[in-house]
Here is the input.
Amino acid sequence: MTASKEFGFGTQIRKSPYFDATVRWGAKDFSVYNHMYIPRDFGNPQKNFWNLVNQAILCDVAVERQVEITGPDAARFVQLLTPRDLSKCAVGQCKYVLLTNAEGGILNDPILLRLAENHFWISLADSDILLWAQGVAVHSGLDVHICEPDVSPLQLQGPKSGEVMQALFGDSILDLKYYWLREYELDGIPLIVSRTGWSSELGYELYLRDSTQGDLLWEKIMAAGAPFGLQPGHTSSIRRIEGGMLSYHADMDINTNPYELGLERLIDLDAEFDFIGKSALQKIRAAGVSRRHVGIIINGPAITGSNTCFWALEKAGQTVGKVTSAVYSPRLQQNIALAMVDANFATLDTEFVVTTPSGQTTAMVVPKPFYDPKKQLTVS
Here is the structure.
């Protein structure tokens, strides 16, 4: 969807509180995510990548809708939704979690924020978890209230993001730990700020709690960031694939289980708590998986943009997998990709034939993440 003077957008797809600001600041293309428009292009994806890794970018990610869960049984209910043990999740802490269905399939891989003892936000990837959670609650027998609050996140990401945040909030922001949150008020604008983001870089998410102030918040952040080279931007496919970060509907879906993705660390099958999909995941663990998600490099000319469909991976003339996310990394000067392959062909250095829009070429399994494997940038 290309931005122009007349967008022609309908009311059935929502605009974020930052929509007008992103257009003023140069957003050129949009897509739809969680029934909302999200900016996908400010003119040059490689320039956006370099802005991210060298300075900082501000991204409209209001599409990361929140499912708010409150009530006396909120903590018990949230644990029912995820296989990750939340018993040690403190108030003010965030957790990367998986939500699974009765077959062990992944419904979403959100960030969970615990704002109070029985007050949670599930910060969503692209799927209708609000409806899922409300449906589960009907038959849970638990006393909870589930809604979508007036909350719209921005992502401020990149090595200069800490300096921009210091200019906005003062020195108190400097001790906010990775995957923790804090409540702030910026000149009367109510916010939750967390040390999280979808970039594999140092970064913050600012959760606006009053959508009428979206334009004001955007401009305040851009003004504070100007001395540090802050640029408007969009979530970078280049950087997230470099970091091995997964995208829901691309790298996983309802038919993908956590073991195929190598996410065993997010599953606590031997703990006493129950959750949806526990028995199915116990069976999957015992039987093993028939496919695995891997990193690959693709030979040939630089990929233009990113893949818009799954590319088949072949071995001896047989399809044994598919490329789920692919992009050219200007830093690594390689075509890098994530792929789901037959478990028999998931070992390092396994070679495949792949057909891209540029023609047939070869690919090989390599370690992932492709860059900063210990995630030192995000936690520094």
